[in-house]
User: Which sequence fits this backbone?
């Protein structure tokens, strides 16, 4: 059941559902989340069941205010404090040492926990009404394309789930995840925030997991090799390879979709073509909706032009590489 997220009565109803141990779909600026009371391990278990998600794959806990961090985390390093002060509310998740005895299910049984303060006004209103942290992965079946509209969520879970409609997500891909449990900040999942922005915020170099030479990283959301995958097979190709393949298939090409910045010549009326924007933020905002749209039109193959190599595209590239591994 989709409700208008700007309606205070809908917010109040959703908060009652969460406080009573139920699940709610809701908009954030990144993607739609499937939320449950982070303090209730039984409620959080419902997320894993609904998504078909392994219970050791940790969730992100969403908080209304930075002051709530102390409810879930201890030993917060100064560089994490600087990240949160500068980039919250926003599309950033920080992984911190977990406070003992708190949110064990949401943390996937680890001694660390991922925390985020979302910027979407609907998400903030819901979190404030709940008066508790809300564990919320993306509101889709595990490993599939994340939802960026309320209708996407309803397609995944049906009318039995209350979904707060906040319109299409402004960012469109999940948050950047920075591990702050070790001696240095380590980027585990890129998003729309570039590494340069993260470094400017925290005042020191942000390493990749491969660059960090100490202890291993905690498990984090959305970092499996195969993730974000539509039903159709995704293949990343350069523009020349896409054009060559289309030319070889000619008018007989069918059940294929092309998502590319480069204009291509298509001889078949059965090939779908969607122009990829020239800038990374616009591509991120529409990426998952485009993949879902191709699926809805029954294509079997999706040929995607490789994103540019510069760091602004890291988040989009990460999602496409994982989608292509599905």
Assistant:
């Amino acid at each position: 059941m989709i409700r208008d997220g700007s309606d205070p009565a809908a917010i109040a109803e959703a908060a009652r559902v969460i406080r009573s141990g139920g699940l709610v779909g809701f908009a954030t600026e990144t993607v739609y989340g499937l939320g449950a009371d982070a303090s209730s391990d039984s409620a959080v278990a419902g997320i894993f069941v609904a998504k078909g998600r392994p219970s050791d794959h940790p969730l992100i806990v969403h908080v209304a205010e930075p002051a709530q961090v102390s409810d879930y985390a201890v030993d917060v390093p100064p560089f994490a404090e600087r990240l949160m002060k500068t980039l919250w509310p926003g599309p950033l998740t920080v992984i911190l040492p977990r406070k003992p005895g708190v949110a064990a299910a949401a943390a996937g049984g680890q001694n660390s926990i991922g925390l985020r303060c979302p910027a979407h006004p609907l998400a903030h209103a819901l979190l404030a009404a709940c008066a508790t942290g809300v564990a919320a992965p993306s509101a889709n079946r595990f490993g599939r394309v994340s939802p960026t509209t309320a209708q996407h969520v309803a397609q995944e879970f049906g009318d039995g789930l209350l979904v707060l409609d906040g319109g299409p997500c402004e960012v469109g891909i999940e948050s950047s995840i920075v591990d702050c449990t070790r001696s240095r900040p380590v980027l585990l999942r890129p998003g729309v925030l570039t590494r340069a922005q993260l470094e400017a915020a925290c005042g020191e170099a942000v390493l990749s997991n491969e660059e960090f030479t100490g202890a291993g990283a905690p498990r984090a959301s959305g970092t499996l090799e195969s993730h974000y995958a539509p039903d159709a097979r995704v293949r990343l190709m350069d523009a020349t390879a896409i054009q060559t393949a289309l030319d070889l298939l000619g008018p007989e090409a069918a059940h294929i979709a092309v998502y590319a910045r480069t204009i291509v010549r298509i001889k078949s009326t059965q090939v779908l073509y969607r122009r990829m924007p020239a800038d990374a933020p616009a591509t991120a905002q529409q990426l998952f909706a485009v993949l879902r749209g191709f699926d809805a039109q029954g294509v079997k193959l999706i040929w995607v032009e490789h994103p540019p190599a510069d760091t602004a595209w890291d988040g989009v590239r990460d999602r496409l590489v994982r989608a292509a591994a599905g």
